[in-house]
Backbone:
């Protein structure tokens, strides 16, 4: 069973983005207050779906694309008995991009991922049997771009990449280039371009108009403006591996079970896993380096507090979640954000009423 849903649809996403920007904060739908609000709206719906799966098809697998994918997958994993694996297109997009940078076929390049959804790092690049990690880092230092359609490709400072000795995912820009990202989003919101959700609504309106033509026989150019590249590819690979017990390695979101030291076993992480008929088995990684570990611990605390708030309608846990989020990190702003999130989303948040 594949789940990809957006409670409140794009207008709710746009409201989240505008709310963040009104406090001079990033409101992106998987990080900051946007990720928080979307998780509150989504978790109860996903748990309802999971309970139905428990009853109707207890051996079935839920393959979750719904953002914020890590938080949603962990909520279902911890608060239902349904089988679930979370899937994101960031790792596969990074894989394709790095293979292209090295001018090698996709299947000749192997990447070692470890972190959280939308906050994962590539720790090792093996290209045709050799370690090419340092080579790829130098290519990025020299101007090669690694980003997503929905994230501005702001270059990483070479000093950071060389010190890190790893490759951040595009979403790390929200955490490590916050001021630049915020400035760009405030400008877009003010000059008529709009927030990302508002841009997507315009694109979708154009797409639906094109799709109304039964003679359409080619992929619309507007589709490339969305951020879902390679989802179909990895979805079919995952279904195949689960159904046919392939023992295939893929990068998915699943319970940690000791793979990353220092995180709870039931915390959902994003890493390389072996996929067979019994599910996703994460490969042991060890401890993340200090800078990565500190950010991961903080964001995981935010995620787990958000889950508790969403499941139990707990306003105290919700406040702590926003304070824990590194893109908020201010108790007074956190309280104001919480009040506005609960008021503007009350139709979708009955657990708080």
Residues:
């Amino acid at each position: 069973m594949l789940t990809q849903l957006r409670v409140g649809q794009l207008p709710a996403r746009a409201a989240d983005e505008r709310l963040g920007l009104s406090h001079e904060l990033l409101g992106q739908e998987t990080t900051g207050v946007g990720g928080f609000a979307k998780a509150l709206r989504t978790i109860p719906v996903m748990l309802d779906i999971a309970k139905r799966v428990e009853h109707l098809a207890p051996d079935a697998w839920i393959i979750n694309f719904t953002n914020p994918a890590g938080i949603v997958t962990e909520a279902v994993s911890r608060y239902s008995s349904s089988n679930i694996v979370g899937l994101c297109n960031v790792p596969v997009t990074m894989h394709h991009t790095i293979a292209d940078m090295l001018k090698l076929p996709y299947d000749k390049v192997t990447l070692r991922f470890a972190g959280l959804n939308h906050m994962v790092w590539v720790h090792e690049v093996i290209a045709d049997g050799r370690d090419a990690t340092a080579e790829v880092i130098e290519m990025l230092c020299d101007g090669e771009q690694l980003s997503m359609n929905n994230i501005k490709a702001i270059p990483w400072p070479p000093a950071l990449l060389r010190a890190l000795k790893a490759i951040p995912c595009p979403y790390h820009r929200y955490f490590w280039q916050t001021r630049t990202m915020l400035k760009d989003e405030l400008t877009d919101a003010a000059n008529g371009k709009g927030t990302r959700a508002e841009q997507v609504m315009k694109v979708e309106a154009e797409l639906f108009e094109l799709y109304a033509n039964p003679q359409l026989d080619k992929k619309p150019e507007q589709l490339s403006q969305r951020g879902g590249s390679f989802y179909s590819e990895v979805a079919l690979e995952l279904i195949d591996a689960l159904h046919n017990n392939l023992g295939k390695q893929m990068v998915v979101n699943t319970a940690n079970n000791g793979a990353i030291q220092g995180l709870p076993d039931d915390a959902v992480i994003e890493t390389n896993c072996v996929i067979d008929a019994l599910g996703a088995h994460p490969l042991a990684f060890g401890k993340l380096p200090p800078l990565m570990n500190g950010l991961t611990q903080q964001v995981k605390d935010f995620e787990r507090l958000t889950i508790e708030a969403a499941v139990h309608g707990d306003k105290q846990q919700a406040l702590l979640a926003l304070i824990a989020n590194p893109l908020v990190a201010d108790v007074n702003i956190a309280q104001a954000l919480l009040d506005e999130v609960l008021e503007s989303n009350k139709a979708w948040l009955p657990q708080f009423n």
About this structure: The chain has a mean pLDDT of 95. The beta strands are 2-3, 61-64, 83-86, 109-116, 119-127, 130-131, 167-168, 248-255, 268-276, 279-282.
